[in-house]
Design brief:
This protein is mostly helical. The protein has one domain. It contains seven helices and no strands. Helix 2 packs parallel to helix 3 and helix 2 packs antiparallel against helix 7. The radius of gyration is 21 Å and the shape is elongated. The two termini are about 30 Å apart. Keywords: Membrane, Transmembrane, Transmembrane helix.
Length: about 170
């Protein structure tokens, strides 16, 4: 095991969970910043409006969806599994619903900022929320796969030989 992995092994479970929660919050912020209103407004204003100004005016559309999605994931046990045994196939439903909560809550907050909403704007906001969900879902799973790879590298013994276990049934394939 590498140095970072051994340092993380000595941390208490609460600190490890807080570290992963912080990671997910940062990932949600990056997704929102790039695929949400800040970057779109920044580009639409031809870079005349500062990105910090946009963040200060739109922070609610990040804060509530992120807290709601991460709370959902925490309550339903997404953070109980260990990175060592994490498999994205096992947690697909939970991470997918959490990311959909993030994206579509953002869409609702974004749409409710306006008095009059056209159907084209509504469809664009929903598609943007879906894109935000898809990117957040990918970031959640990729970050855990990368952490698993870095913290617990897959080592094989060069002298190992394949064996067959007789009488093991379907597990001995």
């Amino acid at each position: 095991m590498n140095l970072i992995g051994s340092k993380l092994q000595t941390l208490e479970r609460k600190k490890k969970v807080l570290l992963v929660l912080g990671n997910d919050l940062i990932l949600a912020f990056i997704c929102w910043l790039v695929f949400g209103p800040p970057m779109a407004t920044f580009i639409a204003s031809e870079f005349s409006t500062g990105i910090l100004e946009i963040f200060y005016s739109e922070w609610i559309s990040f804060f509530f969806p992120a807290i709601l999605a991460i709370s959902y994931l925490y309550i339903f046990g997404f953070y109980k599994s260990l990175i060592k045994f994490f498999d994205s196939k096992d947690s697909i439903f939970l991470s997918l619903t959490g990311s959909l909560i993030f994206g579509f809550t953002w869409s609702l907050i974004h749409v409710y900022q306006f008095q009059i909403v056209s159907t084209t704007f509504l469809s664009i906001a929903l598609l943007q929320g879906f894109l935000l969900s898809a990117v957040f879902y990918a970031f959640l799973n990729i970050s855990r796969d990368i952490a698993k790879y870095l913290l617990y590298p897959y080592d094989t013994d060069p002298d190992a030989r394949p064996i067959v276990i007789y009488g093991a049934g379907a597990t001995g394939n």
